[in-house]
Amino acid sequence: MQSLERLLQEAVCSGQPRTHRPWKKIMIMVEGIYSMEGSVVCLPDVVALKKKYKAYLYLDEAHSIGAVGPTGRGVTELFGLDPSDIDVMMGTFTKSFGAAGGYIAGKKVRSLTPCLLRSPLRVLFPYPRYV
Q1: Residue 43 contacts by C-beta under 8 Å, 6 or more apart in sequence?
Q2: How far is residue 5 CA from its own chain's centroid?
Q3: What interhelical angle do 43-53 and 2-14 show, nearest 10?
Q4: Mind giving me the DSSP string for 10-31?
Q5: Residue burial 16-30, b: 16+ Cβ < 10 Å; e: rest
Q6: Using one digit for the tens of pLDDT, what is the confidence trace for 42-60?
Q7: What is the model's pLDDT at position 26?
Q8: Are 59 and 76 in contact (CB under 8 A)?
C-alpha cells in the first residue's frame, strides 16, 4: 500500500508529465483475487487511499465473484464494504459460474451507443436492418 500511496502522491503533486497540469481523473485498478498467486487485495486500504486522493476505483472481480464472501458476492462482501465505494466493478461469468458473458457495473449510467457506432466489430458484424 505504501508504494501505491507514493504513486498517488506523485500523480497529484506533479500532474501530467508534459504539461504539469493536474490530472482530471486518477483511476486505481485492482483485482479482487490475483489469479497467479491467489492473494486477496486488501480492499479496505485501497478504498481509504481512493477517498484520500479522490481517485476512482476499478475492481476486477473475475476470480472472486461467486467464490469469496459469505454469499459469494466477492471481496466487497468479504471485507464488509459498501459496494458504492467502488466506482467500477467488472467480472466474468466464465470462471465461477461456468457460463458465457460478464458484467461491468458502475454508479453512472452511460450509453454504449457511441462505442458501438465506432467499433471495428460493427464493420465485421453489422447489425441486421430491423434492429
Answers
A1: 30, 32, 59, 75, 76, 78, 79, 81
A2: 18
A3: 20
A4: HHHHH-STTT-PPPS--EEEEE
A5: eeeeeeeeeeeebeb
A6: 999 999 999 999 999 999 9
A7: 87
A8: yes
Please tell me the distance from the alpha carbon of residue 52 to that of residue 49, in angstroms, as a whole number: 5
The answer to whether 75 and 46 are in contact (CB under 8 A) is: no
Domains by residue range for the chain, with CATH: 2-124 (3.40.640.10)
pTM (2 decimals)? 0.75
Asked if 23 and 54 touch (Cβ cutoff 8 Å), the reply is: no
**Residue 106: CA atoms inside 13 Å, Cβ hemisphere, count?**
12
Is residue 110 helix, strand or coil?
Answer: coil
The partner residues of 90 in beta bridges, in order of sequence, read: 60, 104
In the chain, % of residues over pLDDT 70? 82
Length of the chain: 131
Yes or no: say if 90 and 103 are a contact pair by the CB < 8 Å rule: yes
Read off φ and ψ for residue 39, nearest 5 degrees. -80, 145
Q: What is the pLDDT of residue 79?
A: 96
pLDDT of residue 59: 94
